[in-house]
Amino acid sequence: MITRRMLLMVIAVLLSGAEAQAVIISPTVLEIDSQSSGQPQVIVSNNTTQITPIEASLRRLVFQDDGEFVAQDVIDSQLMVFPPAVMIKPGQSQVFRLQWIGDDSSAQSESYFLRFSQPSLVATRGSQSGIAVQIHYNAIIHVFSPQQAPNVEMQVTNSGEAVVKNSGNRYTYLSLTKFLPAEESATEFGLTRVEMMKSLGEHFLPPFSSIELPSNSLLKPGVYQGVQQ
């Protein structure tokens, strides 16, 4: 089981380590409007001195009520990626195009790993096992429709512990959410967006899920309604 924080860590590793990798993907996070007629794309660049084989595949992220998720192989996906496999010459790049072929009636937004696999053409030098090493690179794809929307609420206890719940059918991020008092017992945070980020950190909020935040003295007890910024 993988947590939503690990999902953000995947993004951070992709961003911070991209320049050090032999194969670079850009962008590493992509949002697709299911009603758009365009074809979003991800570019894979080969910075090695050898021809590099790349295979593209999709894995659906299935989120649980607590925000954790499992990545499942996609058999019959409404999200397509082209081409499925290529050979990229040294110093060259390949454009992979994405297309949503489903309708707009999805019950909620969907998220995927777009996996680029680099199978080894030859066995590892000096290896006696005969096992070839395969390297994977992941981009994260979020698919949504304009009719979908997050609905975020935060409940803070007297000890400063908080539960953030997204009962909407679209994902969002904590950094994109401003919290306003939802009842008389709650008071304004009085914190800027930067202060909120430093205090609470970044969190991905999947649809129909909730996350628990550690105790924080800056959080005042009460119920707060999230407003998307």
Automatic annotation (TrEMBL):
<dbReference type="InterPro" id="IPR008962">
    <property type="entry name" value="PapD-like_sf"/>
</dbReference>
<keyword id="KW-0732">Signal</keyword>
<feature type="signal peptide">
    <location>
        <begin position="1"/>
        <end position="22"/>
    </location>
</feature>
<protein>
    <submittedName>
        <fullName>Uncharacterized protein</fullName>
    </submittedName>
</protein>
<dbReference type="InterPro" id="IPR050643">
    <property type="entry name" value="Periplasmic_pilus_chap"/>
</dbReference>
<dbReference type="InterPro" id="IPR013783">
    <property type="entry name" value="Ig-like_fold"/>
</dbReference>
